[in-house]
Write a structure and sequence with these properties.
6 helices, alpha/beta, globular, Rossmann fold, 42% helix, binds 4-nitrophenyl phosphate
């Protein structure tokens, strides 16, 4: 099972989603990665505030480096989770076919099915924004982990 977390810059939300889900699954059986639809921050570490909030909850994401989403990702990954509607549109624009589009899901739809609730972009907000994003992603990743465990058992 291979899961890709996608946001805009790949420095705030999707690195947290990657680290949180990795902390909950058997990483010998499940691959979790993240990418951004924009390449502005490619090669950079996650935002300091994402590194800090993850560390507070015992997760080290400081080794991650931002990368741009590629068309190959639609072949490599089974499921692609996006954070907001804008990510969804950008990812689907790159998807090579209908099968690829079907892999894309808004991550909070795992918590609130079919409601398209967004994980807000915390980049221009204070530390509280990152706490809130962590809590939202942790709730979603707990549900994703349960689903994955049923599949990889
Ligand atoms: P992310 O947040 O998509 O959660 O990584 C952002 C990071 C950087 C920018 C915007 C959002 N930016 O405009 O550089």
């Amino acid at each position: 099972m291979k899961v890709l977390m996608v946001c805009l810059g790949n420095i705030c939300r999707s690195p947290l989603a990657e680290g949180i889900l990795q902390s909950k699954v058997d990483t010998t059986k499940v691959t979790v990665d993240s990418a951004g639809t924009a390449a502005w921050h490619s090669g950079e570490k996650p935002d300091k505030r994402s590194i800090a909030v993850a560390k507070k909850y015992g997760i080290d994401i400081s080794h991650q480096r931002a990368r741009n989403l590629t068309v190959e990702d639609f072949e490599l990954f089974d499921k692609i989770y996006v954070m907001d509607r804008s990510n969804y549109i950008n990812v689907c624009r790159l998807a090579p076919n209908e099968k690829a589009v079907a892999k894309v899901e808004m991550i909070l739809n795992e918590v609130h099915p079919d409601s398209n609730v967004e994980v807000p972009d915390p980049y221009y907000r204070g530390d509280q924004g990152f706490e809130k994003v962590f809590a939202m992603l942790d709730e979603a990743c707990t549900i994703i982990q349960k689903k994955i465990n049923q599949e990889v058992k």
